[in-house]
Write a structure and sequence with these properties.
Strand order of the largest sheet: 3-2-1-4-5-6-7
Number of domains: 2
Number of helices: 15
Strand content: 15-25%
Low-confidence stretches: 390-395, 397-402
Helix content: 40-55%
CATH class of the largest domain: Alpha Beta
Largest sheet: 7 strands, parallel
Distance between the termini: 25 Å
Radius of gyration: 21 Å
CATH topology of the largest domain: Rossmann fold
Shape: globular
Mean pLDDT: 92
Length: 402
């Protein structure tokens, strides 16, 4: 079986990393010959993969999602990328096209229709409902009125970009409904997106490339880490309020890493409590892993319904327990006593509970993320699509009844 996997770019977000991890796992099997199509920027640091064919964009890697898509959607760059992808696909002659991340769905759909082969589309979040995560910070995933969607966009950009965003979101939804199979990254995501999509939806958990490894812990203080985008939806403001009563405790040291729109707030707060709070900014992967591995606890106070948290799994793999809000798919990932309501008081109580009895919080997960199991499940989905041709919807309905 020959699988063509398409991604927006090689390294930018957790979704792209997850697709690369999945491609790497598929490449290690005897049943699949895989080719990864993606874009790269001039300063991309990820080593080239043996099963990868990249289109090189002659620009430096962007620092925001908005900048990334403004580059990828540039008409000249978009058409050059499409032309390159079609050429590689003709040479590879795949049996299945697997769209990995958001915009890659457009390129993948064009390839699948031109070559008359099945299309698998991966859904990592809810961007086909709105391109910003702010409508979902109350924990509810739903379609919002067009007027409200436009207002969210206009809060961050001009009218031209806002109208372009509305058009792009609707285009992505149309392309998703042309897929033969949709893969959701968690059961929570599957259940929430089903009302808006026509194709059958199956769950394939993301693969994490962080090795299971235990660092020697800091032994002078209790080190607590927040490592995520510094945004309202990720709950950094909740974290800062929660640790306010802990900054005077000489046993505790707070580490914050990442970047985002609330970085000025984090810098101001950390400078006020510089003896207790260390703001690292962006950390390279190796340094971030060492910090997490040597710390005692990671905190994930998500406000929006997190589709699937790679950071939680990476923390556990590195031997550091994670506590998180009970939003989205997190209850699938962590046992119930690791969860809290996304409120400062609830988070503070959970941290204090950990400090009093750390033995009650070993670094464990509530799900099985065995790579072989995930890959075999995905291969089975590919095979079912190939066997059924245009009747794949009927087959998956029968499969669900079984």
């Amino acid at each position: 079986m020959r699988v063509l996997m398409v991604s927006d770019t090689i390294e930018f977000s957790g979704a792209e990393r997850a697709i690369v991890n999945l491609a790497r796992a598929l490449a290690s099997t005897k049943h699949v010959k895989i080719l990864l199509l993606t874009t790269r920027f001039l300063n991309t640091t990820t080593p080239r993969l043996p099963f990868e064919r990249s289109f090189i964009i002659s620009k430096k890697k962007p620092i925001s999602i908005k900048e990334l898509y403004s580059i990828l959607l540039n008409p000249v760059i978009f058409m050059k990328t499409l032309h390159y992808f079609l050429h590689v696909a003709d040479d590879f002659q795949p049996d299945v096209v697997h769209s990995g991340v958001f915009l890659s769905l457009i390129w993948s759909t064009i390839i699948s229709r031109k070559m008359k082969i099945p299309l698998v589309a991966h859904v990592h979040d809810y961007r086909f409902l709105c391109l910003t995560d702010l409508p979902f910070v109350n924990g509810v995933v739903s379609q919002i009125p067009s007027s409200l969607e436009l207002k969210y966009y206009l809060d961050k950009t001009n009218i031209y970009s806002a109208m372009l965003a509305m058009g792009l979101r609707r285009l992505i939804l149309q392309f998703l409904n042309r897929a033969d199979l949709i893969l959701a990254v968690s059961n929570f995501v599957k259940n929430k997106i089903q009302p808006f999509l026509k194709p059958p939806i199956k769950v394939v958990y993301n693969l994490v490339d962080t090795p299971v490894f235990k660092y020697e812990k800091f032994n002078d203080t209790i080190n607590i880490v927040y490592s995520a985008r510094l945004s309202f939806s990720k709950g950094i403001h909740i974290f800062l309020r929660a640790v306010k009563s802990l900054v005077k405790d000489t046993r505790v040291r707070i580490h914050i890493t990442g970047f985002g729109e609330l970085e000025p707030l984090v810098r101001q707060y950390s400078s006020k409590y510089e003896k207790s709070i260390i703001f690292h900014g962006f950390l390279p992967k190796n340094l971030l892993q060492e910090l997490i591995g040597r710390s005692h606890l990671t905190v994930h106070p998500f406000l929006w319904p997190e589709p699937f948290s790679l950071s939680i799994i990476e923390s556990v793999n590195l031997g550091t327990p994670a506590i998180a809000s009970n939003r989205g798919a997190i209850p699938e990932i962590l046992p119930s006593h690791y969860l809290f309501e996304p409120e400062a008081e609830q988070l503070r109580a959970k941290i204090l509970s950990f400090m009093m009895r750390p033995e009650d919080y070993p670094p464990i997960l509530a799900i099985n993320l065995d790579a072989n199991c995930i890959v075999n499940t995905l291969i089975e989905f590919y095979q079912r699509i190939l066997k059924t041709g245009k009747k794949e919807h009927e087959l998956f309905i029968m499969y669900e009844k079984e």
